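Minutes, project check-in
Item: structure for the 336-residue chain
Input as provided by the requester:
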Amino acid sequence: MATLRHSYIAGVGHYVPSRVVTNAELEPLMNTSDAWIQERTGIQERRWFEEGKDTTANMGANAARKALEMASVEANDVQMIVFATLSPDYFFPGSGVLLQRELGISNNCPALDVRNQCSGFVYALSVADQFIRTGMYDTVLVVGSEIHSSGLDKSPEGRGVSVIFGDGAGAVVLRPSTTEGQGILSTHLHAQGEFAEELIVKEPGSNRDNRADYVVANKQDLYPYMNGQNVFKHAVVRFPQVIKEALEQNGYQSTDVDMLIPHQANLRITQYVQQKMGLTDDKVFSNIQRYGNTTAASVPIALSEAVQAGKIKRGDLVCLAAFGSGFTWASALIKW
């Protein structure tokens, strides 16, 4: 009987811009307060990109270089790029090809862009995992990178959303393994499009006779809209569901989890999920306090930091989980 092939994470890395934006800095801009922001989100500060220095692609490349180094893989050994972002450098082409150029990859490997917002990295990881499982590729680079700060309404009208988001990038390198019980055990992806407009940036949309003129007249539609109450209500249901789905498929219980890396959407959501799953503080990783919500970058940044801090070791059962716009939600269960 042939040994089943699967993928494992051989390297992780992350990059965040050097500019730190504290809640105090936002107070005069948005008529808000540090206490108000922390009470509702748990966020104390976030990173904002620097124009002329940071781009979605080069932040992803900075994270990727660290992941490649950990994996002992050269850039030209990468056989596929899967790039998750909702904030690409250009309307087209996607940031995947720009990342390929940034890294100097000259082997013409495919570059696939994934648009699944907060669930984007776990979706991208699932895609990469399937390509390795089938034997099509041996080395896949998966990146999540976001620049939100250039597209936020920084006035008092936008504070309910704009205080939440930050910029950054994370990356992993996937390699094949035939060691039973090691690596990515399973991934689980879901979507519910009836709630698409509950968390949305509507413009610039393609369904206008003249999108440029429409945007000029409707600038507010360039900013994110979020029905926060409804997003929270669904998130606290879908997070536990998709985590339990992954555990049950692989014969585990929540007590077996060594580390849960949730999408960093809101500290209150994470705390609710932690309580619902019966997990202790040392088994849930949170860094939203320092980075805010970095959407597709949040899971790989948190994973990279957890590995760097020694909170994840070989043999640990690690669960990644995300929920966001779409609505979309996803999980991945990994034996490290």
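Outcome recorded: The chain has eleven helices and 13 strands.
No further action items on this chain.
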